[in-house]
Write a structure and sequence with these properties.
Radius of gyration: 17 Å
Number of domains: 1
CATH class: Alpha Beta
Shape: globular
Order of helices and strands: EHEHHEEHEHEEHHEHE
CATH topology: Carbamate kinase
Largest sheet: 9 strands, mixed
Helix content: 25-40%
CATH superfamily: Acetylglutamate kinase-like
Strand content: 15-25%
Structural class: alpha/beta
Number of helices: 8
CATH architecture: 3-Layer(aba) Sandwich
Length: about 240
C-alpha cells in the first residue's frame, strides 16, 4: 500500500559530501539513488530539489563581502551541478529522469514549468528541479516548498541527518525529545527550526504537510511512502 502517490523530496547539498569536507561523495550518490529507486519501483511519482551547500552558499559569500545577488546565483548554479550528479547516478540505475531548472541552461536542462514537471511525473520519470526559484534571496527550502505546491505533491519530504524535529538540537542536548507530529502553529510558537519562514508559510498556507526524517537510514524513504511512522510529520 502506498500512502503518498506524488512526493517532493528535498535533499541538502551537504548530505552529498558524506565524510568529505567538500564536494560530492560517489558513495552517497549511489546510496540516495538506490533509496529513490526503491520507491519509483513502487509507482511513486518523485520530484527532487537539492541544495548546493556542499559547493557554494550565497549567504556565506555575502558574509565575506561578495555581492549577495551574485553569490545567490552562484549557489543556484551549485544546485545544478548536484542535480546533474544525481541524474547521472539515477540513469546508471535505469531510472528515467528529467532535469529542469529555475535557471534554464539549454544544453543541460530545460526551464522549469509546472506543466512540464507534471507531464514527466505522470510518465514515470523522476523530475529533478535545480536552480532554486531562479531568483536571488530565496533558499532551496523555499524553492522546495514552491515546487511541491506547483506540482501538487501529496507531501514534502525533507531528508536530513537527524530523524525528525526535536525539542532542542539532539546533537547538542541528549535530553531532547523527538516530536512524532506537530502543527505549523506549534513549530512557529516553539521556535523550532525546520526551514526558513518563507518556505514554512508557503507550506502552511497551501496545507502541504512536511515530513522531516533521516535520509541516511536505509529504507526510511520507502517506509514513509508506505505510511509508516518515520520522522516528524508537520501538518496544519
Amino acid at each position: 500500500m502506498i500512502k503518498y502517490k506524488r512526493i517532493l523530496l528535498k535533499l541538502s547539498g551537504e548530505s552529498l559530501m558524506g565524510n568529505q569536507q567538500y564536494g560530492i561523495d560517489p558513495l552517497m550518490l549511489q546510496k540516495y539513488a538506490l533509496e529513490i529507486k526503491s520507491i519509483v519501483d513502487e509507482g511513486v511519482q518523485v520530484a527532487i530539489v537539492i541544495g548546493g551547500g556542499n559547493i557554494y552558499r550565497g549567504l556565506q559569500g555575502a558574509a565575506k563581502g561578495m555581492d549577495r545577488v551574485q553569490g545567490d546565483y552562484m549557489g543556484m548554479l551549485a544546485t545544478v551541478i548536484n542535480s546533474m550528479a544525481l541524474q547521472g547516478e539515477l540513469k546508471k540505475n535505469k531510472i528515467k529522469t528529467t532535469l529542469l531548472s529555475g535557471i534554464p541552461i539549454e544544453s543541460i536542462c530545460k526551464a522549469m514549468s509546472r506543466s512540464k514537471a507534471i507531464e514527466n511525473l505522470e510518465k514515470g520519470n523522476v523530475v529533478i528541479i535545480s536552480g532554486g526559484t531562479g531568483n536571488p534571496f530565496f533558499t532551496t527550502d523555499t524553492a522546495s516548498a514552491l515546487r511541491a505546491v506547483e506540482i501538487q505533491a501529496d507531501v514534502m519530504l525533507k531528508g536530513t541527518r537527524v530523524d525528525g524535529i526535536y525539542t532542542a538540537d539532539p546533537e547538542k542536548d541528549p535530553t531532547a525529545i523527538r516530536y512524532e507530529t506537530v502543527t505549523f502553529d506549534e513549530v512557529y510558537e516553539k521556535g523550532l527550526n525546520i526551514m526558513d519562514l518563507t518556505a514554512f508559510t508557503l507550506c502552511k498556507e497551501n496545507k502541504l504537510s512536511v515530513i522531516v526524517f533521516d535520509m541516511n537510514k536505509e529504507g526510511n524513504l520507502k517506509k514513509i511512502v508506505s505510511g509508516e511512522n518515520v520522522g516528524t510529520l508537520v501538518t496544519v
